[in-house]
Specification:
about 450 residues, alpha/beta, five-stranded mixed β-sheet, four-stranded mixed β-sheet, 13 helices, 24 strands, binds ligand EPZ
């Protein structure tokens, strides 16, 4: 498929699109199916590259996967789970970060696992030290091997007490997927409590797990001996919903996002309103629009839930280039999430990056030389440019900038966006965007 879009920007987006299940939940729920003794069925599954990668990895491990993209249903039958050839698993090296979550389920099912080197967006170092420490604490042996890591469980995994140094989403999921079948009780403090994690807990509870979420980020799991399959409808993708909302604001348009859910987006909605965007919520979705008046500059810090998500930051920054005054954005989750702004500058935006924490509190990156704060001066008209997609969310931001900019932009590397935004070119067309995909 051609990997470049020519976008004729400067026109407001108008219309309606639908978001389906959350990318950052669906892949994890698919991994959870490995733990069941019978088949599982996941609904509201979007057609994105991450679903394909996880399906392939599950199939290599003997799971029978049947995916119907139109209905958005994936059926997973883990009755013949087996150890695949390392060379086969290796073909998926670098494709995604999800394989690290196979560790616990495979250790329970097979007593061993080989996890290929991980992929994912280049937005920071993205270490897996928390994951490996968790697995070791359950009693797993973890060794670095060529092209990945090799794990084994000489004894059945045992429940444990762990405090995370930072409320990592992936590490919390790692712990949940391992603790549900470990012997005894596991207690995790400083856990991540994102809505996608809450929905993974819903899935695990349907499977037979006993999990309680206490106050102050403490999660307690009582291990059980067997889990069954589940049927579940994935929560909607709040990152995709916010991305289209930001596109509506940056282009001066209005977009009805069918499927967007207020409860998962409260912090985004507050911020959207402070910037000057307006929205109307109904039972089926949220309509986001630019009211026509000037947008306002804001101060924003990204944070773990219930804070402002790091994944909402990049699309919103494009809209902030159109707000009056100086906006300050302090990124506290990833140390290198401003790589995308150089393209915006080439389009006319005025953005200065700082190593200092320009926010209410000092974060982990303050003294470590990372350019993790941005000051955005606006409004600046954007003009067309030739730009290259750097990562998933940064890429969508480039697309928004191209849609907002006058003239024809060339956006290269757009297949990266397919990783997390289902049929985004169909949705652009539905919103009246003027573009063509390079055919060579
Ligand atoms: C998940 O990544 C999401 N990815 C990310 O979405 C999202 O930005 C992130 O959570 C935060 O919400 C998926 O769900 C597939 P973390 P994850 O562990 O789990 C540090 C997108 O565009 N850390 O919460 O990998 C880490 O470096 C993606 O959809 C360690 O230091 O994120 C980061 O600074 C991008 N050691 C912080 O914790 C570890 O072992 C948060 O990462 C693990 C994490």
């Amino acid at each position: 498929m051609a990997d470049m879009l020519y976008v004729d920007g400067g026109n407001p987006l108008h219309g309606e699109i639908t978001v389906r299940g959350a990318k950052n939940f669906v892949s994890k729920a698919m991994v959870a199916a490995l733990l069941g003794e019978g088949p599982s069925e996941l609904r509201n599954v979007p057609k994105i590259r991450d679903v394909q990668v996880v399906s392939e990895l599950l199939e290599l491990h003997g799971v029978h996967v049947r995916y119907c993209p139109e209905a958005g249903v994936v059926e997973l039958d883990p009755c013949n789970v087996r150890t695949p050839m390392v060379a086969d698993v290796d073909t998926l090296a670098g494709a995604s970060r999800i394989p690290i979550l196979f560790c616990g389920p495979l250790l329970h099912r097979l007593g061993e696992a080989f996890i290929p080197d991980l992929g994912g967006c280049a937005i920071g170092g993205r270490p897996i030290d928390f994951h490996l420490e968790i697995l070791r604490q359950f009693g797993a042996e973890v060794d670095k091997a060529e092209g990945g890591i090799r794990l084994s469980a000489p004894e059945p995994l045992r429940g444990t007490k762990i405090a995370l140094p930072y409320p990592s989403v992936g590490a919390t999921e790692q712990l949940l997927l391992t603790a549900v079948r470990a012997e005894g009780i596991t207690e995790l403090s400083n856990a991540a409590i994102e809505p996608e994690i809450a929905d993974l807990i819903n899935v695990l509870q349907k499977m037979g797990a006993i999990i309680s979420v206490d106050t102050d980020r403490v999660i307690r799991i009582e291990g059980v001996q067997r889990l069954v399959g589940y049927t579940h409808t994935a929560l909607p993708d709040r990152i995709e919903a916010a991305s289209w909302a930001s596109a509506a604001l940056a282009t001066g348009g209005d977009v009805y996002v069918r499927g967007a859910r207020q409860a998962d987006m409260t912090t985004f909605l507050n911020t959207f309103r402070k910037v000057g965007g307006e929205f109307v919520i109904d039972d089926h979705g949220i309509s986001f629009f630019h009211p026509g008046a000037d947008l306002h500059s804001i101060h924003l810090e990204t944070d773990v839930h219930p804070g402002f998500m790091t994944d909402w930051q990049q699309p919103l920054v494009v809209a902030l280039t159109q707000a009056t005054g100086l906006s300050i954005v302090h990124e506290t989750v990833y140390e290198k999430r401003f790589g995308f702004v150089s393209a915006l500058e080439s389009m006319g935006a005025t953005i200065q990056l700082y190593r200092e924490c320009l926010g209410g509190h000092a974060c982990r990156f303050g003294q470590r030389n990372f350019y993790h704060s941005a000051v955005i001066f606006g409004p600046t008209p954007l003009s067309a440019a030739d730009i290259v997609v750097p990562d998933l969310r940064g890429g969508f931001s480039h697309l928004i900038a191209a849609l907002a900019a006058k003239g024809q932009s060339a956006v290269r590397g757009i297949s990266l966006i397919d990783r997390g935004y289902e049929r985004f070119t169909d949705k652009l067309a539905a919103l009246g965007a003027q573009f063509s995909r390079e055919t060579s």
